Predict the structure.
Amino acid sequence: MQTRRRRPDAGFTLIELLVVLVILGLLAGIVMPRLFGRGEEAKRTAAKVQIRVLEDALHQFEVDNGFYPTTEQGLEALVRKPTVGRIPQNWREGGYLEKGTIPKDPWGNPYMYISPGNHGDFDLFSYGADGEPGGEGKYADITNWEDE
């Protein structure tokens, strides 16, 4: 019995290419909606993580200096020694954030900081996807005082 061999210069047939394209299309149809639906959830998770990092830096500032930065001094006090209000005597050279900059929330807005806060020593929050106070779902605020 003689077997038929492909010539080295032979390519794929049109049928083989169409089968591969159909399989890829089916996989994309199943996987892509799941991935795209996670974008906003990933941003909310990133905001929560950044708030925790900023909280840790604020606690380190307080341990070194005996007080939290005021609202007027803001989060800027974590990267530059304040020159207004109560001046920290033991401010850490190089600041309290690794990169020396204050991150913006995942939507490109600054984090809000109030000290003393209405919910604790300080309130730290992002207004979420819409950049406006309040909201529900993906538009809800992300705060350091509420767990979602």
